[in-house]
Structure formats: structure tokens, C-alpha cells
Amino acid sequence: MEYAETRDPNIRNQIVMNNVGLVHRCYQMYFASRYPSEDDANELVQAGMLGLITAIERFDAKNYAVLSTYAFPYIRNQMNKLVNPEMPFSEFECEDSDIPMEEQIEDEYAFNQKQSDISDVMEKLLTEGEINVLHTLHRTSNEPPMSVNEIAKELGMTSQKVTELYTSGIQKLSVPCVQWYLRRKGVLNNND
């Protein structure tokens, strides 16, 4: 990223303008239903802009592939601080304060069970290569998503092979009977 090398404020401002949609998206996802007024929206967006600028200042393109993934927790953290300044947040812990810990734990258990069900289906339907590509692409860690070239390098295959395996894996998982099974297990809801 050119800004990391030059620290040119004009470049930073352009990056901010190119990513302002992230701030609005964060507001819509986490705050719009609780704070719908125009004044609240403006204040939260301004707080989110501070988070975006902080993320741009700290972003290291050598370690992170995508600024948007890196910046999102900073944006949400700043908005959370505005809404509830007494609640301590680390830079990467932006949990919704109105969800009791017990519900968060139950949600985590349900999520893990669904992941297990999906893994069972994948093992029965997909080749090892398709599973590796899909797992690498859709990993749930806090790391930013990987590009096709990065996945190819990590898995020791060509970019074309990664694309072929991804396409064939997705096609197999989108077959109606597989979708029905995943709905029945509660992994997908009827709208998916």
C-alpha cells in the first residue's frame, strides 16, 4: 500500500473516500435498527470514520491482504465506544453489549454443531482437493480472506486448479437434495 511508504495525507484521504461505504455498511449491520434517527446515524458514521482512519494508519499490506477486512473491527469498535463509552473493548472484541453471555455461548455451540454437519456432508460429497480449497477460502479466522493466488500457493497448486475445484465443489453442494438435507439438519433455513 503506497500510503504506508509515503504517509501522504492526500493518499490517505483518497483511501478513506474509497472505503467510506464500509462505515455505512457497519452502521446498517449493527446500529441502524437501534439508532435510526438521522442525528444518531451521522454521529455513528463520524465515529466509524475515525475507526477507518485508525485502521488505515495501522494497516500493513505485507501481513494483511484486504484493508476492508482489517478495518471493519476498528470501525465497529469506534461506533460501540460512542454508544456505550463505559464498556471496555479491545481493538478486535466488538461483541454486541445487549446479548447476554449465555446466549453468546449457546450461539457458539449451535454454530459449531452446524459446522460439524456441514463437514460431514462435505466429506461424503467432495474430493479432498475441493474440501481443501473451500476450507481455505471460507475459513472463519480473524485473518483477511485469501486471494486465489494465495490459496494456490498455500495448497501447492495452480490458480486455475483452485478455481476448478472451487467451482466443482460449490456445484456439488448446491444440488437440491443436498440443500434439502442441510435444511433438515438446520444448517440452512428455508430462505437459503
Plain-language structure description:
- The chain is mainly α.
- The protein has 2 domains: 2-83, Rna Polymerase Sigma Factor, Chain: A (Orthogonal Bundle), CATH 1.10.1740; 101-184, Arc Repressor Mutant, subunit A (Orthogonal Bundle).
- The chain contains 9 helices and no strands.
- The model is unreliable at 88-109 (pLDDT under 50).
Number of domains: 2
3D shape: flat
- What is the CATH class designation of the largest domain? Mainly Alpha
Number of strands: 0
Round the mean pLDDT to the nearest integer and report it. Answer: 76
What percent strand?
under 5%
What does the secondary structure layout of this molecule look like, with pairings?
Elements: H1 2-6, H2 9-30, H3 38-58, H4 67-83, H5 101-125, H6 128-137, H7 148-155, H8 159-173, H9 176-184
Helix pairs in contact: 2-3, 2-4, 3-4, 6-8, 7-8
Jot down its keywords.
single chain; 192 residues; mainly alpha; Rna Polymerase Sigma Factor, Chain: A; Arc Repressor Mutant, subunit A
Offer a quick outline of the entry.
By secondary structure, this protein is mainly alpha-helical.
